[in-house]
Amino acid sequence: MAFQEILGKSIDEIEVGDKAYFAKTISETDVYQFAAVTGDFNPAHVNEAYATGTFFKHRIAHGQLTVSLISNILGTQLPGPGTIFVSSSVTFMAPVYIEDTIEAVVEIAELNREKNRLKFKAWCVNQKGVKVLESEGMVMPPKKR
Amino acid sequence: MKARIGKTVEEIKVGDCAYFAKTLSNTDMLLFAGVTGDVNLLPINDEFAKQTIFKQRVAHGMLTASFITNIIGMRLPGYGSTVKSQKVKFTLPVFIADTIEIGLTITAVNVAENTVDFSVVATKQDGKVVMTGSGVATPPVPLDDSDEEQEG
Amino acid sequence: MDYSIESKIGRTISEINIGDTASFGKTFTEADVYQFTGIIGNFNPTHLNKEFAAKTPSGKRTVPQMLVAGLVSKILGTEYPGNGTVHVSQELEFLKPVFMGDTIEATVEVTKIDGKTNRVWFDFKCVNRDGYLVLTGETEIIPPFIFCEEKS
After folding, report:
1. Full-model pTM
2. Are C63 and B57 in contact (CB under 8 A)?
3. pLDDT tens figures, A14-33
4. Do B63 and C39 touch (CB under 8 A)?
5. Strands of the B129-138 sheet, one edge to the other
6. B89 phi and psi, to 5 degrees?
7. Is C86 in a helix, a strand, or coil?
8. Does B40 contact C77 at a Cβ distance shorter than 8 Å?
9. Which of B1, B101, B103 sits opposite A101 (nearest CB)?
10. What is the ipTM of this complex?
11. Which residue among B21, B74, B127 sits closest to A3, beta carbon to beta carbon?
12. How far A24 CA sits from the closest chain C CA (Å)?
């Protein structure tokens, strides 16, 4: 098995402006499993009684859980399987609540074909169209034989 | 939010193919046992499995078969698809740490019925075939997004 | 530890009779759906995206079809025949969608036994609370057997 057929797009198959999307309803299970995997049991995420007394009024999803939807796109669609994450920065703009449906978008911003690196812009919106986070970063797309 | 769908029946051709590969972990097998309730000791108990002809734990056949829906739901046809029927045959046992690659090929397209026929072959890292199968899937149809504002 | 599978294996072929049935029912929760899609990697929005599902004919997120089929695996692997059962082949026909919160009852029935090759065939059906068939099919299995190693 060489796995060439499962690899995503190489840098030569990508253009500036290319976009890809992923959307999902964030469930309580997602938040609790994320807390379990990372150990981040911040009461803002797993304690509804505490959360009602906070500015947000309800439990909110971990910021990094929403960010991971971007990682999903980079790793499975654009560029896709075989991609190596190099760097990224994120700004959180609005809370994500349990049962919100979040759509992540990745757009290719800059290509460096010589070094096999690309810069991307990304953002996530909720079902009301409110932007909940913005991100930008750099990845190395897979190289194909 | 726009309802983004996979390939419609008009966008699929006979011979189109897609792949998925994963190394089976102990976690996959235990979670699968838990979520389905199939706590057959053969996949989850080392001591039990050692005394069988297989000598080690064998993955649930339905776990391997479920990976077909990964390709149907994610790649070909993709988002919004459903499976109408599916037939599989398990030809060799799959063990923990085996890497399974599933290839799915479109064998017929029926535009009038909005269905596609597919065949699947699953191999493991040594190239041996562990599962073969076929089925019929319903590709997505465009959904009403008239309530959406234009993307800009 | 002196562990013997003899007391733990399910029914061997001599303890299986044509016409025997076994059943299991379960309510599918959101947690089931999210765990299952996580193991398989099938993030089809029909299962995980409320906004998308609202635009589909069913209107709601559906339970993955292979998770429903897992009820059959659960019966065969843990109840009848039970521990040590191995799947050989399976045919599934999906007739209706299943939604989170639905309770589905699966029943299997022995239809054929081949003592020479140690194979047993079952028909199965899954029914929802309104009495509608959601899934039917047939499956071929190897029932548990005591494996005696040849001394060399």
Report:
1. 0.89
2. no
3. 999 999 999 999 999 999 99
4. yes
5. B17-23, B99-110, B115-124, B129-138, B82-90, C86-94, C133-142, C119-127, C103-114, C21-27
6. -130, 130
7. strand
8. yes
9. B1
10. 0.89
11. B21
12. 5
